[in-house]
Structure formats: structure tokens, C-alpha cells
Write a structure and sequence with these properties.
Elements (H helix, E strand, L loop, with lengths): L1 E2 L8 E2 L12 E4 L6 E5 L2 E5 L7 E2 L9 E3 L7 E5 L4 E5 L7 E4 L21 E4 L7 E5 L2 E5 L5 E2 L20
Antiparallel strand pairs: 1-2, 3-4, 4-5, 5-6, 7-8, 8-9, 9-10, 11-12, 12-13, 13-14
């Protein structure tokens, strides 16, 4: 992977990858940029030295994607929607603990749920708010600012979800 330390003027590649041939997956970067988590099919790996070394994250189900808290650089989250678990790390993604996923209704089932590349069945964080999480599921939109998720009214199906944007600046 490549990264820039000067706003994109120059780029460097990491010295190593978490596994041989790693070239896909998703990367989450802590709010201060010091911790990177690369989620691959076989697991998620963390580096705190810009890819010099990688360590597998402890406590995660392989194949799920990690996201960073946008405010607290030590916090990371991951979702196993169909397994009914929310994973939380407060030690810069070294260890994750799993918590039962409470949506206030039965968990969605895998099956004909469209294409996950459209952003469905994924976990998102609200910019500038620590712990404000959203699940963009095919069956609806859920939000949590604490322990439980609550389905947002008037969203019965979600066919595509891009990202949660920043709020409009005050002028």
C-alpha cells in the first residue's frame, strides 16, 4: 500500500504486507494516523510503524472489516451482522472484545441482499463524534450512540450507501 505524509505530493510504499500477496481488503486509520488496520479475508492486521511490521488483531472473526473511531485514536470497531456481534477495541486494535448485537428486532439473515460493494450490511462512524455508529443494512438503517442500535424510521430497504459526510460548517 502507498501512503503520503505531505498531503499527496509524494508517496511511499510500506516495507511489508500482513500476509504474502496481500493486495485487497479495507484499511482503517486511527484519528491521529498512528495506527492502521488492514482487514483481509483471513483476518485483520495492525501496524503502528507505517507497515514495517504487522500483527494480527486478537478477538476478531476473519473476513470482517474494521473501522476507526473518528475522534478517539485508540478505539476501533467491527461488525459481524449475521453472527450478531459488535467488536470493540480500546487499545489501538491489538485486542477486540465482542458484544451481542442488539438491533431491537431479529437479526437480518444472509441471502439475497444485493451487493455488499454498494455499502450494505456495513458499519459506519459519524465524523467528529466518538462512538456514534451506523449500520447500513439492506433491511434498514440503524444507529447507536451507546449500547444498542435503533432502527431509523421510514427506511425499509437500503440499496446503496456511500458514506456519512461531514456536517455543513458554521459560517
Amino acid at each position: 500500500i502507498g501512503y503520503s505524509l505531505d498531503f499527496g505530493r509524494t508517496w511511499q510504499t510500506t516495507r511489508s504486507t500482513p500476509t504474502l500477496g496481500a493486495n485487497q481488503g479495507r484499511i482503517a486509520i486511527s484519528s491521529d494516523g498512528s495506527t492502521w488496520v488492514w482487514s483481509l479475508r483471513d483476518g485483520s492486521y495492525v501496524t503502528r510503524d507505517r507497515g514495517e511490521t504487522w500483527t494480527q488483531c486478537d478477538g476478531l472473526t476473519p473476513g470482517i472489516s474494521v473501522i476507526a473511531d473518528p475522534v478517539d485514536p485508540a478505539r476501533f470497531f467491527a461488525l459481524d451482522l449475521f453472527g450478531g456481534k459488535l467488536f470493540v477495541s480500546s487499545d489501538e486494535a491489538a485486542h477486540f472484545s465482542d458484544h451481542p448485537l442488539d438491533l431491537g428486532e431479529p437479526l437480518p439473515r444472509p441471502g439475497n441482499r444485493m451487493d455488499s460493494r454498494a455499502g450494505q450490511d456495513q458499519l459506519y462512524a459519524t465524523p467528529d463524534r466518538s462512538g456514534d455508529l451506523w449500520i447500513a443494512a439492506f433491511d434498514g438503517l440503524y444507529r447507536s450512540t451507546g449500547a444498542n442500535f435503533k432502527k431509523q424510521p421510514d427506511v425499509q430497504e437500503l440499496h446503496a450507501f456511500i458514506e456519512i459526510g461531514l456536517r455543513h460548517p458554521v459560517v
